[in-house]
Amino acid sequence: MRWTSWALFAAGIAGWANAAQLTKVTEDFGPNPRNVGFYIYVPDKLAAHPPILVNPHWCHGSAQVCYTGSQFATLASQYGFIVIYPDSPNTADKCWDLSSNATLTHDAGGDSLGIVSMVRWTLKKYDADPKRVFVTGISSGAMMTSTLIGAYPDIFAAGSAFAGVPFGCYAANGYGVWSDACATGKITHTPAEWAAIVKAAYPEYDGWRPKMQILHGTIDETVNYQNFLEEVKQWNAVLGYNQTATTTTPNTPVSNWTRYVYGRNNWFQAYSAANVPHNIQNQEAEVMSWFDLTCTSGDCFEWGKGHF
Length: 308
Known about the structure:
Elements (H helix, E strand, L loop, with lengths): L5 H8 L8 E3 L12 E5 L10 E3 L8 H6 L3 H8 L2 E6 L22 H16 L7 E6 L1 H12 L6 E5 L17 H4 L7 H10 L10 E7 L8 H14 L7 E4 L6 E6 L5 E6 L10 H8 L17
Parallel strand pairs: 3-4, 3-5, 5-6, 6-7, 7-10
Antiparallel strand pairs: 1-2, 2-4, 8-9, 9-10
Helix pairs in contact: 7-8
């Protein structure tokens, strides 16, 4: 794994010029039952068999705002990977479908299937690397990140979720149902119960599990911090880990944030951001390192590599 400081990132991306633009894909790209919008950023110069980064937006956001709101497109131009920016079909609040049984089940429908269809189309269209597909998001985008990691462990190599909730926490009868009980931290389960919810999404799957990274502010006023604690229980149980961190690192990647690493091989990371509200700062350098997206050849992290 290659750890790169934000200072080096800032120096590297400053002044990076390119002609590539965010583009809406209007052709048929596969099953998309909820009509999720498909926007893609393909840099002028692609790496050989480029990785794919999926970046779902937050509630009241959009693909376009997500594109302009982070450095991922600029970094894609520097390192040659592709970024998919899905756009929620929920016009009322632009939140993602995190509730329907379809979206929480492998290849069953919902917003998650539309996004996975984008990935499958991109893999074929650009001869991208099927073992280097990653997903990251903030708030509702973080919740969709967990949904995709839980329901499609055969597609994604790793996820990074900022201010999200456990997989299945929003489960309800309908598409895009807001769960006040989940958001306020009132839904709690044992680790085994949380793991069972994930495994029920793809019950026949018994293979390699993606790496997972979660980050959450301790004074989050929209998605209660209890959800962070529940996520820790869930992903540790899914991966078969003890609930006690193996290492604890304070003040990383910024002051007053603490990183907890669980299990072996750095497979699950949880960042607790002291005194940070729901408007949590994106940490592009940390995400890039977690996904090893600065690696353009050779021994890069990929799906199926390493043991969880």
